[in-house]
C-alpha cells in the first residue's frame, strides 16, 4: 500500500489519562508525500494520537518514529522538521499576519520565504491585519502557513475545518490539495467524512481509542456490500407489490408519495423498466451508493 | 535578527499596542508626579513627605506591571495555547517568558527615569540623594515584584484568575505598603506588616534612598527573600499548558 519510504511509524501506542484509556494499541505507518487521515468521532483518541506522534505528549507504551526520530527524546531535532497546527490554539489578538509569519520563520534554521507564502496563500490583502480581526477561515489559513513556514517534511493538521462555514471549509480543502503538490507529508485529523474522502490518500478510522480500519477511502467503501438505494416520488396511487417481486429488489419503503427501493445488481434498470411498463412517472429519481459515511457506520456502529 | 531577538521585538510591539498597559505602567506614574508636583509645590523643601510622591508613582507603576500586566499576559499565552504551539517549534517557550521579563524591566526602568527627570526638572522634586541605595532598591524591588507576578502566572489556571489574583495582590500591597497613604500616617501595625510585603519594603527603601539614607537592611533582605522564594517557586510550578 505504501508508495514510498514511511516517514511515520507508530506501533502499539498506548496512552491513558488517570483511569481513562485514551488510546489502546494503535499502529499505523505513513508514507512520504501522503495525506494520511485520522478519522473518528469526537473523543475517539484522534487528538491524543497525533499529539503523541508530534511529541506533545509522552505515550505510556509503544514506539513512535517520525523521520526516524523519537518525538520525545529527539524533540529538538524533530521540531525543525515538522509543522503543527493544533486544535484550539490562538495567537495574540494584536499580532499582525506578517508579524506572525516573520516571528515563526525566525524560529527555524532554514525557513520558507514568508513574504512569498503570504502571496501564494492569497493573504496579501490581510498582510497587516491583526489576528483578532481575521475571519475563521483566514485564521486557519494563517495557521496552515505557520505550520509550513519552517519548510517541514511532515505537517500535522488537527481539526482544521471545525467551526468554519461551508464556504471557508471548501476553500481550506483547496489549500490542502495544493499542499499535496509540494510533496510534504500531511497527517490530517478530522471528524468530517467528506473532508477525509476528498483529501486523504489513506485513512485510519479510530473508534474508542483503537484503530478499526486502515485503507484508502475507496477501499473502505468497497468493503461495504454493493447495496444501492433508489429514491423517487410518484403522483397518484402506487402499489409496492409491483416492485417487490423483482429479483434485484430487497426492500421497498413507501412514505406518502416518497418511495425508497433498496437492492443490488442492476437495480436501477430493473426498477425503471417495471415503472415504465406500468406507465408510472418517477419524479426526482436519485440513486445513492454506499458512501464513506455508510462504511464508517458499518465499522464503528455509530453515526455522528 | 535571531529568533530570540525577533521574539523580544515582536513582544515589545505587542506591549506598546495595548494602550491600557502602557498608560498604567508609564503614563500613570508620570501623571502622578505631574499632578502632585502641581499640588504640593515641592520647591526645594526637605520635608520627608516630598519623597513620598515620586516613590509612590514608581511603586504604583511597577506594581501594575509586575502584579497585573505580566501575570495576565503570560496566563493568557498559556490559555490560548501560544506556549504549547511554540513548544512544537525549535524555539523554547521559556524564551517567551524571558522576553516578557526583559521588556517589562526595560519599561520599568524607562518609567523610573521619566518619573525622576520629570519630577526634578518640571517640579523641583529632589533627585534620589543616595543614588547607590536607590539603584539597589529599584533593582531588588523589580526582582521581588516580578518574581511574585511570575508565581501568580505560574499557578493561575486562567488569564481571568491571574488578573483577579494580581489585582487583589495589587490593592492589598497598596494599602499595607504605604502607597495609598504615606507610611507615617498609617497605624504602626500596618507599617510593620508592610515592612514584610514586597511593595512595602520597596516603597520604604525608595523613600529612604530618596531622602539620602541607605535603605534599611531589613527591607532589602525582604526583597531578596521574595525574589528567591517566589522566583524558585514560579520556576518549579510553571504550567506550560
UniProtKB/TrEMBL annotation, chain A:
Record's keyword terms, sorted: Antibiotic resistance, ATP-binding, Nucleotide-binding, Transport
Positions of the ABC transporter domain: 8-233
Record keyword Iron present: no
Signal peptide bounds: none
Membrane-related topology note: Peripheral membrane protein
Locations listed in the record: Cell membrane
PANTHER family: ABC TRANSPORTER ATP-BINDING PROTEIN
Protein name in the entry: Iron-chelate-transporting ATPase
The organism of origin for this protein: Kibdelosporangium persicum
Automatic annotation (TrEMBL), chain B:
Record's keyword terms, sorted: Antibiotic resistance, Membrane, Transmembrane, Transmembrane helix
Domain ABC-2 type transporter transmembrane residues, every copy: 6-208
Protein name, as recorded: ABC transporter permease
This protein's record includes keyword Transport: no
Organism lineage string: Bacteria, Bacillati, Actinomycetota, Actinomycetes, Pseudonocardiales
Originating organism: Kibdelosporangium persicum
UniProt keyword Transmembrane, yes or no: yes
Spans through the membrane: 21-40, 52-75, 96-119, 131-154, 161-181, 218-238
Localization: Membrane
InterPro entries in alphabetical order: ABC-2_transporter, ABC2_TM, ABC_2_transport
Topology within the bilayer: Multi-pass membrane protein
